[in-house]
Amino acid sequence: MKVKINGKDAYYTSSGREIDKNQPTIVFVHGSGLTHVTWVLQTRYFAFHGYNTIAVDLPGHGESEGPALNTIEEMADWIADLINSLGINKTSYVGHSQGCLVGLEFAERHPDKLELLALINGSLSMKMNSELLELAINKDQKAVDLMMDWVHGPLGHKGGHPVPGLSHMGMGNQLVSSNNNGTLGVDFNACDQYTNGEAAASNIKHPTLCIIGKHDKMTPKKVGVELASKIKDSKSVILEESGHMSVLETASDTKNLLKDFFRAHRNAS
Amino acid sequence: MTDPKTYSFNTKTLHSGHQPDKNFGSRAVPIYQTTSYLFQDADHAAALFNLEEGGHIYSRISNPTISVLEERVAALEGGSAALATASGMSAMSLAILNICSAGDHVVSSSQLYGGSFNLLRLTLKRFGIETTFVKPRDTEGFKKAIQPNTKCIWGELIGNPGIEIMDIPEISKIAKEANIPLMVDGTFNTPYLCNLFDLGADIITHSLTKWMAGHGTSMGGIIVEKGDFDWTKGNKFPTMTEPYEGYHGLSFAEEFGPAAFTMRARAEGMRDFGPCMSPTNAFNILMGIETLSVRMEKHLSNTQIMLDYLINNQNVSWVNHPSLPDHPDHKVASKLMPKGAGSMIAFGIKGGKEAGHAFINALKLTSHLANVGDAKSLVIHPASATHSQMDKKSLELAGLTEDMIRFSVGLEDMEDIMTDFDIGFKASQRPRLVASK
User: Is A142 inside any structural domain?
Assistant: First the structure.
């Protein structure tokens, strides 16, 4: 589906379902150089179990018109504009990697629009390796290759995708390569420059779930734990077999954690 | 800056797609010889059927042993996803039917395995899918043959049995310009000789029965998807982009992106046509793939020995292999397959059809059968066997002659094969009761 945000095409998928204003909504925001496809093993469940799901392509990614946004703050405002344009007043937010920084900033800038927050493979800041950043800015394929190495844990490297026949490395490579037109470099730079994570995390009052990958090399376990420690009402879970791609490497575990988190808070309310 | 530490080709042939068994620690890939899989509860069943999560339901759709094979071949090809099938022919049929419907059109190389040629020429035509055949060296001809309703270009890198080479990078440019996928049967090259995705293919199929399995024991095919073809461009591929009633309005391109083609082929193709591989065959093929590199090296070196032998044999009128300098495609073959252009040799016997029959009948070691890519050396006379259902005009279009022997070079000591061939050639040149035409 496409809507206009600031005069540009903005793409999201709701898993083929109409948005029902009587249902709660969850926005899913992908990581650097990725797209909405990252979320397919979570979004389809929620879309068919009483939620509106909005899995976005950030500007310049996938089907959304460019250019890519330069800062995490701009991305957070873009998410707010998107849900406004869909007539949604409040949403829960699930972010992966860079999407976690956007989530922290969304909570900071638009707290009244947020219900529940889930941060997967996140951290308070994401200082980039300077050579990797330069490779991505120069649209060098080596940036994608290095990223595929670092984002996948032992499971992703060897294989055993939850969906029969799919390759973690192959899928990831294609998704990121499709955005290695400069967008990946802009994303990495936005992550590198973002400094408000700790302050934003400290201000969050919303119930928050942090999912951490034991084998994560991009946002290692200790920075995931640190992120959770700064958020008052947070719960953290470490996935033993996951690298940085918990949404795919341990897709069912991730989905079940989200399911339990949303169900518990929905029942409570 | 360090280099990426991802697994290399030979490591992938042994490990990709497999996590050792958690229950018993089985190091080898277990054969899951089961039709179906227990659901955890009703919600789990519903989630699997609605593609909300990955997993296995019924072995016609997917199976854990076969999934290892699929991931392994996807990894070797550098694709995003793969779907294994009962045979190479079912892989081809599913791949084409995945995007073609009645009224659609295919442009194909005319140099194809006989079964593939007849699928396009006769069978798909009955279902309203027409094909225009173009000689593989006629690059411009592919461009001219494309119509508004053309949905793909089909071909084999190493044509069977004429061993013409299709210039994949050039044909790929034409396919990209027309916004249609280039589908290439890579059976004769395997991922060891070249990476067809790097050359420009969008979809690769294999008959895994041949070199990939390598031992002539098990039937199997596979479709591999590269993952960067834009199905949404130009509204040309409704099966990929339009909501599918069979899965609650699912759009495969939207939901699965780089794996859309594979997901549709599995969800619809395996569900409705059902050409599933046997788990035991998947295990056998995986065993073959573990030694792909070492076998292919030996296939290539033995091919060179046999080429030298055949070229210098007075009973041979011609020898056809792309590694020979006088082969019309030698230059492009060397460029696309620098390690070597495979282990299929075609040659003509002096004395024509009858001499060919006498040669084959006299062989004691080399096997006369309808297969290629076995560890054992194989021969056949295509005009009377694999391509016998083709009329004279079709034979000419496929580049076949009646004196042609197709030789799949095996892994034996080639001295023994040469001794066997000497016996065959001697028999071929004996005076016959029926004179050659």
Answer: no
The answer to whether position A254 is within a domain reads yes
Which H or E run includes A79? helix A72-85
Kind plus residue range of the DSSP H or E element containing B251:
none
Q: Within chain B, which residues score under 50 in pLDDT?
A: 435-437
User: Per-residue pLDDT tens for A186-239?
Assistant: 999 999 999 999 999 999 999 999 999 999 999 999 999 999 999 999 999 999
The answer to whether residue B6 neighbours chain A at the CB level (below 8 Å) is yes
Which CATH code is given to the segment(s) B293-428?
3.90.1150.10
What is the distance in angstroms between the Cα of A161 and the nearest Cα belonging to chain B? 8
- Topology given in CATH for the domain delimited by B9-99+181-288: Aspartate Aminotransferase; domain 2 (3.40.640)
Q: What digits encode the pLDDT tens for the residues A167-190?
A: 999 999 999 998 888 999 999 999
CATH 3.40.640.10 placement within chain B: 9-99+181-288
Which residue, A12, A16, A34, is CA-closest to A188?
A: A34
Question: How many structural domains compose chain A?
Answer: 1
Q: Is residue A162 part of a domain?
A: no
| Chain A residue with Cα closest to B232 | A63
Q: Among A147, A167, A169, A252, pick the best mutation site for testing chain B contact (most B Cβ within 10 A).
A: A167
In degrees and rounded to multiples of 5, residue A204 shows phi and psi of -75, 125
Contacts of B6 in chain A (CB under 8 A): 145, 148-149, 157, 169
pLDDT at position B437 is 42
Whether the complex's predicted ipTM is more than 0.95 is answered with: no
> Would residue A185 count as lying in a domain?
no
Nearest-5° Cα angle at B173, B170 to B174 = 95
Domain of residue A214, residue span = 2-125+195-268
Smallest CA–CA separation between B101 and chain A, in Å?
23
Q: What residues form DSSP beta bridges with A208?
A: A117, A234
B3/chain A closest Cα distance in angstroms: 7
Residue A180, SS3? coil
Least Cα separation, residue A142 to chain B (angstroms): 8
Q: Is residue B421 within 8 Å of residue B347, measured between CB atoms?
A: no
Quote the pLDDT of residue A34: 96
| Chain A residues within 8 A of B262 when measuring between CB atoms | 165-166
Q: How far apart are CA B291 and CA A20, in angstroms?
A: 55
Contact pairs from chain A to chain B, CB under 8 Å: 158
This prediction has a pTM of 0.95
Is the Cβ pair A158, B7 closer than 8 Å? yes
Cβ distance A161 to B53 less than 8 Å, yes or no, reads no
- Return the structure tokens found at A86: 């869909």
CATH number of the domain bearing residue A263: 3.40.50.1820
Question: CA–CA separation, A23 vs A18, rounded Å?
Answer: 11
Query: Is the C-alpha dihedral spanning A114, A118, A119, A124 positive or negative?
Result: positive
Structure tokens at B214: 């390598």
A contacts of B78 (beta carbons < 8 Å) = 170, 173
Sheet with A2-5: strands ordered across? A2-5, A8-13, A52-57, A25-29, A91-96, A114-120, A208-213, A234-239
Residue B162 is predicted with a pLDDT of 82
Q: Indicate the residue type of B60.
A: R
Residue pair B95/B203 in contact (Cβ under 8 Å)? The answer is yes
Angle between helices B414-428 and B352-362 (to 10 degrees): 130
Q: How far is CA B40 from the centre of its chain?
A: 38
Nearest CA in chain B to A175: B258
